[in-house]
Amino acid sequence: MNTFFKRTLSASVYAVLFIGSMCAGRLLNSVFWGDVIFTAFMLFVAEGCVFEYYRLVSVKDVRPMAWVGYVATAVAIIPFAFIRLNIFDLDVPNFLSELIFEMAALLLLLVAIGVVIGQLWHHSVNPFTDVAHTLFPLLYVVVSVWAMFVEQLWGVFVLVVVLVWVNDSGA
């Protein structure tokens, strides 16, 4: 299959899924299921981005701990989405939502420390490069996905997604 047609087809499928996940609540006439579908789609996209990043950097002498990155991405996105979107219609007090964020941040800090220790014990050729490539998707991908859940940045983020998508498809 020609590269142009393959990229156009994949961009079209992504566009349908992205728009469908945004409109799922209206189509199902349920805010709850719309939020769940949108969160699941964004988690799927984030994990796909992390997978693509690890696939691109897995070259000679670079061995990121990919499974740690996948788990840490989910740990970083799911609590934020549940609290921010209030998926279960819980009246979560501010202190509890702050506690959940702090627990997720503490867990991610422990993951980062564990990655450093694990890579040093793994006896890889470039342990700090491996650590950097293991943890960078958390900063790069997760912060981008978090922007989707912040209402004030919604329009800006959609504009950036559309511009990047059009430029990438055109390239």
Give a description of the structure.
- This protein is mostly helical and 171 residues long.
- The chain is built from 6 helices and no strands.
- The chain has helices at 3-28, 31-57, 66-85, 94-121, 127-149, 154-170.
- Helix 2 runs antiparallel to helix 3 and helix 4 packs antiparallel against helix 5 (127-149).
- The longest helix has 28 residues, at 94-121.
- The protein is flat.
- The model has no long low-confidence stretch (mean pLDDT 76).
Q: Which keywords apply here?
A:
about 170 residues, mainly alpha, flat
What Rg, in angstroms, do the CA atoms define?
18 Å
Which geometry do the CA atoms define? flat
Fraction in helix:
over 70%
Poorly predicted sequence stretches spanning 5 or more consecutive residues: none
Largest sheet: none
Q: What structural category characterises the helix and strand content?
A: mainly alpha
Order of helices and strands: HHHHHH
Beta fraction? under 5%
- Euclidean distance between termini CA atoms: 17 Å
Q: Let me know the average pLDDT.
A: 76
Strand elements, count: 0
Oligomeric organization of the protein chains? single chain
Instruction: Specify the number of helices.
Output: 6
